[in-house]
Amino acid sequence: MIGYSPGRLFGIRPNAMSAPVHPDCQHPRLPAEWEAQAALMLTWPHASGDWGEHLAAAEACFERLAAAAARYQPVLIVCPDSRTSARVRNRLRSAGVSPQRMIFTEAPSNDVWARDHGPITVRRAGGRAQLLDFRFNGWGERYPADEDDRLTRRLTEEGVIGGESYRRIEWILEGGSIDSDGAGTLLTTTRCLLNPNRNTDTGREEVEAQLRARLGIRRVLWLESGWLCGDDTDGHVDMLARFVDRRTIAHAVCEDPDDPHYAPLRALREELQAARTRNGDPYRLVELPLPAPIHDEDGNRLPATYANFVFVNGAVLVPVYDDPADAIACARLAQACPGRDIVRVPAQDLIRQGGSVHCATMQLPAGVIIDGLATGAEATRRVHEA
Q1: 23 pLDDT band (50/70/90 cuts)?
Q2: Distances from the Cα of 113 to the Cα of 39, 99, 138, 220, 346, angstroms
Q3: What is the tens place of the pLDDT at every residue in 37-46?
Q4: In sequence order, what DSSP letters do the residues of 327-352 get, joined into one string?
Q5: Range of the domain at 68
Q6: What is the value of pTM for the model shown?
Q7: Any catalytic annotation for residue 359?
Q8: Strand partners, 363
Q9: Which parts form a coiled-coil structure per UniProt (predicted)?
Q10: Number of domains in the chain
Q11: What is the mean pLDDT of residues 118-126?
Q12: CB 117 within 8 Å of CB 136
């Protein structure tokens, strides 16, 4: 199937917020990712991370990702040290990236996944942007995350982003675990948000209360099905299903009955077919096929998916894997996102560590103050140890 499919009711009722909050200027609003952005944030790979002998390939992938995004908007690049900043700056300039589209800063980090350690931005009264710094514990304490958990605070304390709009939230939430339609509806998975390895208050009502208070969410579409081999995030929704607009959801599908993903992704599709918009209409669904299986050196299957695409101003950056399904996924996203360029970003080397282009980025919506953008000049800042 190419393009949209109308949802139909399978008797699966999506769970809504138990106490809807009426929208007004006093409540936060979590923007949709297709809304205007000030910049896209990247945290650069480094030798202290898990890339090992694949570090050079990972950096090349990040260079392609940064160059693709910089065609449409500024890119904030967080490097581990000044030598890396200088080298990356020169390589991007050589690739034709305008210096006015690059903002460099330096800060320690554990890993590259800015989607989960970067700020989650909401809008407050008058449309004011507020940066929320949720706790990050390395996906349930699987991996070291102390530097990543401090990264957003360091960037704001040094004036790189945010300033007075910053707020620390002592509750664990990863950007890859949620997806917003910008109008109060959230897509997420029970496997991640209700997992006791994140927060102690893991009851559905308690989690919904946090989402309502912190993000202004009035309706949650809880997904109970769907997983990908090699995903160590407990089922981040950004690997499975994403809003394309307020009436459309793109999601991963598997049509091979012999593939272990076949049954769980079929169940996911049925959940999405049963879901309804705020007006009670079925969502239009865009099916994104999985690429052929990709494995690491030890034979473990990796979670390659096209659902991990990224919105930037005027375009969609789509991870591709040198697979025939690349063209199918890009064509379907082009149909679903009229007026936007579809830009392919090779992600074979990125998926080695279990993530793709959405995992490696965090949007900073329009209105977020970013040092260096006011004058359009290239900025370099050093964020010192706290």
Answers
A1: very low
A2: 16, 24, 10, 25, 17
A3: 999 999 999 9
A4: HHHHHHHHHHSTTSEEEEEE-TTTGG
A5: 4-382
A6: 0.91
A7: yes
A8: 40
A9: none
A10: 1
A11: 94
A12: yes
